[in-house]
Amino acid sequence: MSSQPLRLVGKLQQAQLEATMKVLVPIKRVIDYNVKVRVKADNSNVDLANVKMAINPFCEIAVEEAVRLKEAGTASEVVVVSIGDKSCQEQLRTALALGADRAIQIDTDANLDSLHVAKLLHKVVEEEQPQLVILGKQSIDSDNNQTGQMLAALTGLPQGTFASKVVVDGEKVNVTREVDGGLQTLALSLPAIVTTDLRLNEPRYASLPNIMKAKRKPLDVKAATDLGVDLTPRTNLLKVTPPAERQAGIVVETVDELVEKLKNEAKVIA
Amino acid sequence: MSILIYAEHDNHELKADTLKTVTAAQAIGGDIHLLVAGENCSTVVEQAAKVSGVSKVLVADNAAYKNQLAENVSLLVLELANDYDVIMATALTTGKNFMPRVAALLDVAQISDIIAVESADTFIRPIYAGNAIATVQSLDAKKVITVRATAFDAVATDGSAEVVNLSQATDAGTSSHVSDEFTESERPDLGAASVVISGGRGMQNGENFKLLEGIADKLGAAIGASRAAVDAGFVPNDMQVGQTGKIVAPDLYIAVGISGAIQHLAGMKDSKVIVAINKDAEAPIFQVADYGIVADLFDVLPELESKL
Ligand SMILES: Cc1cc2nc3c(=O)[nH]c(=O)nc-3n(C[C@H](O)[C@H](O)[C@H](O)COP(=O)(O)OP(=O)(O)OC[C@H]3O[C@@H](n4cnc5c(N)ncnc54)[C@H](O)[C@@H]3O)c2cc1C
Ligand SMILES: Nc1ncnc2c1ncn2[C@@H]1O[C@H](COP(=O)(O)O)[C@@H](O)[C@H]1O
Q: What is the pTM of this model?
């Protein structure tokens, strides 16, 4: 009997929720994915001097998804945040040119573990109160694949990782995930944390007018040390070495020769 | 030292990769327990109890763990964590999904995707798509670690561990499972196959992957793909090999119509023998291939199938 008015209230709340949905997108400045890194001669780390840097490709997909949510009228504001030294403002400006409304730089030159990044992002989430946080699934430098899940744990929010489809539906978000066996779809209550996989979307290019416009969009800088997070290192990078080089093999002329080599030389087929 | 390993399974079968993660745990050294969290997973428990080197199998068989949702599994592991110095999982999509939550709840940094154990607190892991290898020391008292299974051998299955049933049944209530779309295949798992044949953009369409199937049938191989082939919709996503797909290290890897981008190499360059079939002699895949054929794949594949 009372289901009619109740449903009405639900719809109203939903409309309000959608109208004010803020999306937060943490982005990381990393080496451009086309560049093959070299290890420093002293084995202390990789050499990033004069290397082309870019937005982590998975973060770019996250920005694109957030901007599409705004274009679809689902999201009201897209805020991008990056933790790093001043140079990451370049990537924040790029994200603004791609359609984000506002940027925050959490300024630090410390070497951070994903745990620290997640803790700093937790503070930003507390301050900004987004309905949805979309991160990349993995940084292509550290290959950690941790931050989104850690942020979800610290905020106590549900997570949809490795997303290939994100559908906001009232007070829920349905996330289709790329898992080992195929695809899995979960329903998460909002607010929620999503991390992107490669097939979620194909990011646009920033147009020149949008690059110009981005210069006037707000970019706030906050010192990481002001956020009350203990940034003491939890890991110690002892050494970085180049991977074992594979010897290039031989070119065979015929399929017969290939089969013969695989049988008698490599002994990998019977 | 006591070590808890999260058993990878689908409620029916214990994944062979867990046997490799046990080897990684043995390299750290200590009393090793397996945790089986699922629903109606008794066959998994039986298999887990036979894993050599494991002294105890903890079982959380409850609807809350049926789909191994990260929110629920991480709370379960957190409740058990007090008794352990090291918590490990295989770096597959389940472990990658929930383990960082465990680490954050325990306030420790996770060490992802280790390929070797240097000592109880120092581990080796690839970074930058495998273009650099890092030696990392964990400064946390408790360690949370995911393991790249291809880097370790499997332990035997002639053990007899004690089985302990747990009463935990925490449902965080913030997420729910809607549906699965799993690819059914008679072929071996990509991660477990001793031969993998993968197709790239050069295959031109999904129909042409049939040319790989005949060969895969003869070799008992799994079929993989490059990201370009998956993106183009030739084949489903779970076939992607690479930095951000599946990591494989079979005895024989045959790359067909794949150029050899660093992100693809990251997922297969530890294979024992690599064969490349590509019409472009300059393709980077030839730099890692033991045997290359510079030719049109549409000529090579039918002939190869007939000669195997
Ligand atoms: C963040 C990020 C993550 C990525 N992760 C992955 C990943 O996990 N795995 C992955 O594979 N890629 C990944 N990529 C993509 C990667 O950079 C390459 O774009 C991709 O691997 C290229 O696939 P391909 O070799 O099939 O296609 P192409 O590079 O287009 O190569 C096709 C090859 O086929 C050959 N060819 C064409 N026709 C024929 C013929 N008739 N006979 C013989 N040869 C022929 C061509 O000579 C060419 O070498 C990632 C990229 C990014 C940015
Ligand atoms: N320094 C950073 N600043 C902002 N976001 C970050 C930073 N590091 C990681 N992230 C986010 O976390 C994701 C996963 O990173 P990782 O856990 O390092 O693999 C990235 O794709 C980003 O969305």
A: 0.94
